[in-house]
Design brief:
It is a single chain. With about 350 residues, this protein is α/β, with parallel strands linked by helices. The chain has two domains: about 130 residues, 2-Layer Sandwich (Nucleotidyltransferase, domain 5); about 170 residues, Nucleotidyltransferase, domain 5. The protein is about 40% helix and about 20% strand. It has nine helices and ten strands. The strands form two sheets. A five-stranded mixed sheet has the order 3-2-1-4-5, sandwiched between helices. It has a five-stranded mixed sheet with strand order 8-7-6-9-10, sandwiched between helices. It starts with 5 loop residues before the first strand and ends in a 20-residue tail after the last helix. The model has no long low-confidence stretch (mean pLDDT about 95).
Length: about 350
Amino acid sequence: MTKKINILAIESSCDDTGAAVLQNNRVLSSKIANQKVHAEFGGVVPELASRAHQQNIVPVVDMAIKSAGIDKKDLHAIAFTKGPGLLGSLLVGTSFAKSMALSLGIPLIAVNHMQGHVLAHFIDEEGHQKPPFPFLCLTISGGHTQILKVNEYIDFEILGETIDDAVGEAFDKSAKIMGLPYPGGPLIDKYAQSGDPKRFKFSKPKTSNELDFSFSGLKTGILYFLQREQIKNENFIDENLNDICASIQGTIIDILIDKLEKASKKTGIKHIAIAGGVSANSGIRKALHENEEKLGWTTYIPKFEYTTDNAAMIGIVGYLKYINHNYTDESTLATARLKVNE
């Protein structure tokens, strides 16, 4: 009989305070406290984020443990996000995890946030198919855009990454140019569903490494295009919002799929996964499914609640590290910058 291992996981890399309890690779509870205060500023304010984490972390952890139907004495280890992320936010989660692990006399496990996004695919969920090794994973979020070759649970090889902006940033900043509220990426996805993706053409930046990404030029091109059109018609954005959003989203999807196709051909790997906050985008999910038959892929898409920042994904990495006795000590420090293979 498999021993039941209870892992408490804490996620505080940005503006959401998350806590989850996993029993082996199954989620018993997952709780998140969102911070709405950032919307009026058009982006996350680091100082406000860290203060909110301090207010939220105790009640969120308490709620996660109670919802899991266990006592804190039943925990075997505490996993926490070490990085990457906002340093002030990470410090709150790191300090809390250290203190709690020390008080309970149980192991402390440091987790790379980006590994959490990828390995969320290995959370036990009914009807969810787990990718076999090796597989390719497109990690797309507000701060990251990478194509990874995943050889084993904690063995990641970066094949390509953005040389400037991340894809989530491209979505949000394009939305801001159009006067849409923060976060704008989900709104572009919403309006794009009623628009024509071929109505407006935007350039696709080239990179020296064919698997690297660049979104800075695209973002600038969108800005100049809208400025030109608004000179002719000040209501251009309002009158064409759906088509503009569909064209922006369509261009970004074309870039992502093109790079994935090249990576698949280069490696010979046909198992393709996506991860990260932007993997919640309906257009990207649809495009992956549409290319399954065309390119002979098998695609793996995580459950919606495991795409954006959450503690369950930190918990699954924590469990995989626990069974390999991969613990950390109290001297560990939060790190704002951390590559996925570190």
